[in-house]
Amino acid sequence: MNRLISVAIIALLISACKTTKLPKVTSMDQLKYGTEVQRMSLSDDIEIAYTQKGSGTPLLFIHGLGSYLPAWNKNVAALSDHYDCIAVDLPGYGHSSKGNYEGSMTFYAGVLKEFLEKKGIRHIVVAGHSMGGQIAMTMALQYPELVDKLILLAPAGFEVFNKGQRQWFRDVMTVDGVRLTTVEQIRNNYAYNFYNMPKDAEFMVNDRIAIRSADDFIPYCYMITKNVKGMVDQPIFDFMPQIKQPVLAIYGENDNLIPNRYLNGGRTKDFAEKGIAQFPNGKLVMIPKAGHFVQWEKADEVNKFIREFLN
Predict the structure, then answer these.
(1) How high is the mean pLDDT of the chain?
(2) Beta-carbon neighbour count of residue 18 at 10 Å?
């Protein structure tokens, strides 16, 4: 009898292993976005993938480190009833081209300026999440005539790092470190971005697992390391007072990534308040029970604050 039970258990385990298949893609542009993806060719063989929905005041949505344009799906869906919502995959990410790009914040600011110029857009509201927030601020500094307002979601750049801390980021963030991230680590990393990770964010985890088998995964890994270097090598905090445009900054009160718990510690609110004080015309919103991915976890609240800011 015991032998029969053991055989049955083994059979169940084998069956479970057969049905639990990890997602795979051979190219990152095979990722399903659930909406039409357009492409635009730019200089230096760069191709930008983007989605565009709605009409009215144009809004540009810039994703964060390691992310992609679907990170804005909940915001675009709600805001496109009154605004022209354009979400992009940055070069090196998602459906956009991969290559030996510079990866700095000024590089991305220049690419996005060219992208908007080719679309005939002369004035834009820029929304950026995390690294995308630092890119948005860089755009506002470099091209003040283009950027009318800034919407910063858990932006990088509010936290200041000394020389030794900046070197720590360069040492810790390696191509192999990104490439060899295990499935368990990927799941834990995403969960760490939320106060309470919702089930409807699971597709991001699956996509991140799937791209490990993609032919363009290695360039993606290189780009992440370049972007980390780009953020710490071009600190923006001291230049923020030069941004004269209205700024809305939104943080989750339970952001596990800002501030860096290992290097600085402290409360997110303290760093957020210190950062927003740098702007001549800034407003800060702290959302309870929300993590770093605040625009997804608390999309309804974020969308409400964005509407109020733009109106």
Answers:
(1) 94
(2) 8
The rounded distance, in Å, linking the Cα atoms of 309 and 290 is 20
Distance of CA 267 to the CA centre of its chain: 21
Where do the domains of the chain lie? Answer: 23-310
Q: Looking at residues 253-281, what average pLDDT do you find?
A: 95
Q: What is the DSSP string of 13-61?
A: HHHHHHH-PPP--SSGGGS--SS--EEEE-GGG-EEEEEEE--SEEEEE
Rg (CA), the chain: 20
**Distance separating alpha carbons of residues 309 and 102, to the nearest angstrom:** 33
- Residue 17's pLDDT band (boundaries 50, 70, 90)? very low
**Chain centre to alpha carbon of residue 304:** 20
pLDDT digits (tens, 9 = 90+) for 217-235: 999 999 999 999 999 999 9
Q: What is the CATH number of domain 23-310?
A: 3.40.50.1820
Distances (CA, A) of 83 to 11, 66, 248, 294: 55, 26, 17, 21
Structure tokens at 187: 């799941």
Nearest CA to 295 out of 254, 250, 258 is that of 250
> In which band, very low, low, confident or very high, does the pLDDT at 3 lie, cut at 50, 70 and 90?
low
